Amino acid sequence: MKKINIEEINRNIYNIKNKDEYDFKIKKGLTKEIVEEISKQKDDPEWMKELRLKALETYNKLELPTWGPDISELDMDEIATYVRPKTKLNNTWEDVPEDIKNTFDKLGIPEAEKRSLAGVGAQYDSEVVYHSMKEELMKQGVIYTDMESAVKKYPELVKQHFMKCVPINDHKFVALHAAVWSGGSFVYVPKGVKVDIPLQSYFRLNSPESGQFEHTLIIVDEGASLHFIEGCSAPKYNKVNLHAGCVELYVKENAYLRYSTIENWSKNMLNLNTKKAIVEKNAQVDWVTGSFGSKISMLYPMSILNGEGAKTEYTGISFAGEGQNLDNGFKVIHNNKNTSSVVNAKSISKNGGKCTYRSLVRINENAKNSKSIVSCDSLMLDDISMSDTIPVNDIRTDDVEFSHEAKIGKISDKAIFYLMSRGLSEEDAKAMIVRGFAYPISKELPVEYAVEMNNLINLELEGAIG
Questions:
Q1: Which of 17, 221, 383, 440 is 20 to 30 Å from 237 by CA-CA measure?
Q2: Dihedral sign of CA atoms 137, 143, 148, 153 in order
Q3: Whole-angstrom Cα distance, residue 46 to residue 66?
Q4: For residue range 88-100, what is the model confidence (pLDDT) as tens digits?
């Protein structure tokens, strides 16, 4: 049997490149004039313009992270922070320009919408180019729209929540995001409304030497529930691209939100994304995350359990190949009694790739009778790959149940020998072990809702045995 290297197969679909044609592209760099021009292009209200400029000041004051992967190759003077494609926002798929439509068609987005989704948003470079939602959800009062439309149509609701869960001084790249953000999704689910079919947004970066800074803001009101899916990808270029999006999730009392995402950026992308959730009394937020692609990733979703009985679960997998450094993890803050968190993280590294699990669990003094279970497993497929586990566990009360388990290892020669003795080839034996390792995570991914996600998981795992 011929061995298949992951590099031979895994980027064929995702490396689709359209001509770098656009209606408007901001000049490279990051100055007050550039931020003001983005605000002008967006026709921002005054409060948003002021927030952008304040964020720029904050960005200039903050230092780069002194830990984690080396991101010194990022030069903002070589990044265009806003690219408007040659199309407006469309509500019917037929109206999307042919080249953009063909890209999303090949990624399986329209087909997923037809089969399994209650609503879809598709962003190309800096703008949402397509948005739709089923009529029955509109009748229930569900709002699902692009972020720019939300700023204008629902100003009070947006102003109340925008950059409040993630404050602009959180770190340097949050400040950058707040200064130049464009695109993204806004969702509001009214009290008691159960959205049984997922909503999905898909983000595609096409333009070289540019950045994508979409903002996702989701509010699930009291007693409501939602499953939201995000996917993203980009073709590979020879120079650095930057992704610094932001996700803010508000899960109100007795509400439930499941947030699933597959990040499949190209191998020239620096993925410096920020995601946080505020969870109120007896509410729950579940994160399901797949991190593939990108040259460097620094991504640590965070749940802040403010209400009594609030819960969170994190299920994530990272896959790093040659030239990749994926520094991912999860953070949770227990701020009230009877709260609980479950973290199940896995990583696979091959061909010299590096995976790092970096986490924080903080259980504060008033979070009595809380529970937290953390498990992180790493699998290395060769002798040149790396894997690190860097947990921080800050437990400030004795009245808790807490456990942390971490395992790092290589594929067992004994396991391979045993499977080969049962008639499997060496390649099939390795593939079975890798799939078995990833199964607790992959089974939670919403692959049935997006062909792109399903293809990505299968190709990465099949290619892992080269």
A1: 383
A2: positive
A3: 35
A4: 777 777 777 776 6
